[in-house]
Amino acid sequence: MPRDNMASLIQRVARQARITFRSPAGPAFGENLHRLQQLLDEVRAEDLHLAPRGPSAAAAAAGGGFPWTGVVPPVSYMHICETESFSMGVFLLRSGACIPLHDHPGMNGMLKVLYGTLRIACMDTLPPAAAASPPPAAAAGGPCHRALFRSRQHYTPASPPCLLSPHTDNLHQIDAVDGPAAFLDILAPPYDPQHGRDCHYYRLLEGSPAGAEPPGLPREVWLMETPQAADFWCGGEPYPGPRVCL
Known about the structure:
By secondary structure, the chain is of the alpha+beta class. It has three helices and ten strands. Strands 1, 2, 3, 4, 5, 6, 7, 8, 9 and 10 form a ten-stranded mixed β-sheet that branches. The model is unreliable at 1-6 and 63-69 (pLDDT under 50). Pfam families: PCO_ADO. This is 2-aminoethanethiol dioxygenase.
């Protein structure tokens, strides 16, 4: 059963996000961000009236069809609220789904797993280096960028929120591991192409020989900017949880 304070909890998260990201350069930002992180860590799937679901339920939510046939999207988004300073919603990933490597220009972000397991790879962009050149595989592709591959970790509902900032862990790839998964997502400020906050996708320009152990982390890598992958798109679903008023 949902907890008695479920409505007040998601409302408190939204209010704290508004306070935190209204002045991201202010002297109290660190303290406010920590408080928001604490509140977000308390949120569970039942607080938002969510439960893990299989392919049949996913197809029903999308209006019919079968997974991976072009009818049911691999990822869905439930919008909760948005202001000029932040947006909040829930992403639902089907089993085996992947949100490709992408960036969040000039944005802060917080991600809390609600159910399932996510593998999240985090990277930072690096300034251009005169002596560095991209690998030959990049010759016929899009723009290339140096990056620091910082981490690749598994997150579950028992994990603390995953954080990103304009300069740290700003690029990430999110994979659903061993079943469907969902996470509560806060971005501050929201994406807005008109203000230079468009989403860009990337491909990692490296590969290990078959059977070889992957290189250790952190390490420098090259990324190629790419169009959105043809097999990735995000659908929309109604948010079933407590109403948030700001």
